[in-house]
């Protein structure tokens, strides 16, 4: 692959100003520009860094996604056209881990209730048995990649015992027991918190269905920082309404933004965040590091870092 010119698509503005990434790549050996990929041609660029997929990107040789997930990219089409696809996996573990830790502490210390009461000018302490401390509780992290690793580190640091689920039951530091997906219901059955950190694939779509929710403890909380379609959202609403589980913290949804008509908005034991779990002011710097290394490897005749296709 010849790599002389790199474009930054305006769509990355969903996460950070594209000019910030441009500045961070000033030391790159390739010419780098910002484009509006919906209108600007990319025929003079060999590669593009983007948040969004656009058909015209089939004209380049390398697409880099600023997200870890690549479910929005037509992988079969890219493979047919010989387009290299890379992602930003590995840069989100810290932010996602802290987001999940925040959910856990909010539920345990009732911080979400206090925040809601503050908006109503209401002074109301929790009942004597409503709040607890998390040390000694058990969590199950479904997906032990870089996101799951960030979650494991934060939860074990808070004193929780952590089990995990992934395709191969290879031991993982800090994880008491590693289950396979076929053992998912057993894995979640003893956890106070079930945190989802898997990519969206054919195998994980609808992974958390009514049967899995029924296998969870009645006092358990589902925490989803993966993708909305990993969870059967209708089954989740039913489980919450019927008290099958105690609550949920959701950063991702089947439809985004979450429709105003969704019953999730009105549920007291549900924390909703707007797909913001990985957002950090250093996001563009982290992406720049991955892109810079990809450029170096390609120009040296090697595969770029985080190659998906």
UniProtKB/TrEMBL annotation:
Highest taxon of the lineage: Archaea
Domain D-isomer specific 2-hydroxyacid dehydrogenase NAD-binding residue range list: 102-277
Record's keyword terms, sorted: NAD, Oxidoreductase, Plasmid
Xref: SUPFAM superfamilies: Formate/glycerate dehydrogenase catalytic domain-like (SSF52283), NAD(P)-binding Rossmann-fold domains (SSF51735)
CDD domains: 2-Hacid_dh_1
Gene3D superfamilies: NAD(P)-binding Rossmann-like Domain
Gene Ontology molecular-function annotations: NAD binding; oxidoreductase activity
This protein's name: D-2-hydroxyacid dehydrogenase
């Amino acid at each position: 692959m010849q790599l002389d010119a790199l474009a930054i698509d305006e769509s990355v503005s969903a996460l950070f100003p594209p000019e910030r990434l441009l500045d961070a790549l000033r030391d790159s050996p390739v010419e780098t520009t910002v484009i509006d990929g919906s209108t600007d041609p990319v025929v003079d660029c060999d590669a593009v860094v983007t948040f969004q997929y656009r058909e015209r990107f089939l004209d380049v040789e390398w697409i880099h996604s600023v997200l870890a997930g690549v479910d929005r990219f037509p992988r079969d089409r890219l493979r047919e056209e010989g387009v290299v696809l890379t992602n930003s996996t590995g840069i989100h573990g810290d932010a996602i881990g802290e987001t999940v830790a925040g959910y856990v502490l909010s539920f345990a210390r009732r911080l979400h209730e206090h925040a809601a009461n503050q908006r109503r000018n209401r002074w109301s302490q929790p009942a004597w048995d409503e709040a607890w401390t998390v040390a000694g509780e058990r969590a199950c992290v479904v997906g032990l990649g870089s996101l799951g690793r960030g979650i494991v580190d934060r939860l074990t640091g808070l004193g929780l015992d952590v089990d995990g689920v992934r395709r191969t039951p290879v031991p993982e530091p800090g994880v008491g027991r590693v289950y396979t997906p076929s053992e998912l219901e057993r894995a979640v059955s003893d956890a106070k918190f079930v945190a989802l950190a898997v990519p969206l694939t054919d195998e994980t779509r609808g992974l958390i269905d009514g049967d899995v929710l029924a296998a969870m403890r009645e006092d358990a909380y589902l925490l989803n920082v993966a993708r909305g379609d990993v969870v059967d959202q209708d089954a989740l609403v039913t489980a919450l309404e019927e008290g099958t589980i105690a609550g949920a913290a959701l950063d991702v949804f089947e439809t985004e933004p979450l429709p105003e008509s969704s019953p999730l908005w009105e549920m007291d034991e549900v924390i909703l965040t707007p797909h913001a779990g990985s957002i950090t002011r250093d996001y563009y710097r982290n992406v720049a590091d991955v892109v810079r290394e990809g450029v170096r490897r390609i120009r040296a005749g090697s595969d770029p870092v985080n190659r998906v296709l």
